[in-house]
Amino acid sequence: MRADAVVLGAGMVGISVAVHLQSRGRSTVLVDRRGAAEETSFGNAGLIQREGVYPYGFPHDFGALVRYGTNRTIDAYYHPSALVEIAPFLWKYWKHSRRRRHAAIARLYSRLIEHCVTEHDTLAAAAGATELIRRDGWIRAFRTNEKRDRGFAEAESWKREFGLAYRALDARALAEAEPHLAPVLSGGIHWTEPTTVVDPNALALAYVRLFERLGGRFVQGNAATLEADGALWRLRTAAGPLEAGAAVVALGPWADVLTRALGYALPLAVKRGYHMHYRAAGTATLNRPVLDSESGYCLAPMARGIRLTTGAEFALRDAIRTPVQLGRAEPIARNLFPLAERLDTEPWMGARPCTPDMMPIIGPAPRHANLWFAFGHAHHGLTLGPVTGRLVAEMMTGEAPFVDPAPYRADRF
Ligand SMILES: Cc1cc2nc3c(=O)[nH]c(=O)nc-3n(C[C@H](O)[C@H](O)[C@H](O)COP(=O)(O)OP(=O)(O)OC[C@H]3O[C@@H](n4cnc5c(N)ncnc54)[C@H](O)[C@@H]3O)c2cc1C
Question: Is the pTM of this model over 0.85?
Answer without folding.
Answer: yes
